[in-house]
Amino acid sequence: MTDQAATTALGRPQRSLWGDVIRQFLKHKGGVAGLVIFLFIVFAVVFGPYIHTIDPQYLDIRNKNLGPTWEHPMGTDNLGRDGLAQVLSGGRVSLAVGIAAMALSLLLGTLIGILAGFFRKLDGPLMRTTDLFLALPILPLLLVIILLFRDTLRSAFGPETGIFLLIVFVIGITSWMNTARIVRGEVLAVKEREFVLAARSIGTGSLKTIGRHIFPNVLSPVMVSATLGIANAIITESALSFLGLGFPSDFPTWGRLLYDGANFMTLNPARVIWPGLAISLTVLSVNYIGDGVRDALDPRIRGR
Fold first, then answer.
1. How many CA atoms lie within 13 A of 16 on its CB side?
2. What family does this chain come from, according to its entry (predicted)?
3. Region of residue 303 (phi > 0: left; psi between -120 and 50: alpha; otherwise: beta)
4. How far apart are CA 91 and CA 95, in angstroms?
5. By the 8 A CB rule, do 260 and 243 touch?
6. CATH code assigned to 18-46+82-297
């Protein structure tokens, strides 16, 4: 009797790994709420400019420093630029930086973690390098790198593309360490399991063993790190922009909007409230998604 026939005979529906993961995630109220909020923010920043069609760089000096109105729901700045249009435009850049930097740090962390955990000779050098990066003061290091290479990349790729590449690069290469350590620990445990030992005993090569047996079994911490990495990258980009070392003033991001609005906080509080609220909601929603994914992938909880 096949497994499917046995399952049908017992009257129980057939279950799959990812089906259990999705069901467990949907039971996590915080994760579902975070996913709904994050999808709403993504939808707003991607499609919002097609609904709210005001140019974020359009100057309307007669209507400067306005509070919320029907025409300008988030008010205007000291040059009369629409606040909602700038928040939507800045959200595109902030989310793009967060996702791109997360992808880079995840690639580096996963690669280094797998190599360190699987190859004993590489474990010592790679982990000492990881410890070295963890010991560095991240924010001063970011400031130094940006000050050294900002003008060079701006002249090579343009002011917007150059600073985008630089910020993604510096955030990515300074945020991979925790992922590497977590993945290394998982690889050390997985490579001693019977199916991996059996694969190696029949002559399966190292690369094939990693691709077929090791990597699929360390996806759980990688996915959790991915969600949390987006939040960390958005916060770091916002901090750099708030310090005046991010994107130029005519290329808004949420952090840059905070920086530009800080001097007008008493005159027009909405200039810092809305971008600050956007950053807070995005980071909180991503963190809740990470909690939900972590619980859904936990084998002690999944399948109950």
1. 3
2. Belongs to the binding-protein-dependent transport system permease family.
3. left
4. 6
5. no
6. 1.10.3720.10
Joined tokens for residue 109: 């962390």
